[in-house]
Amino acid sequence: MLLIIALVIFSVGFNSLLAQCAMCRAVLESDASGQAARGINNGIVYLMVFPYLLVGAVGYAVYKIRRSKS
Question: Is 0.85 topped by the overall pTM?
Answer without folding.
Answer: no
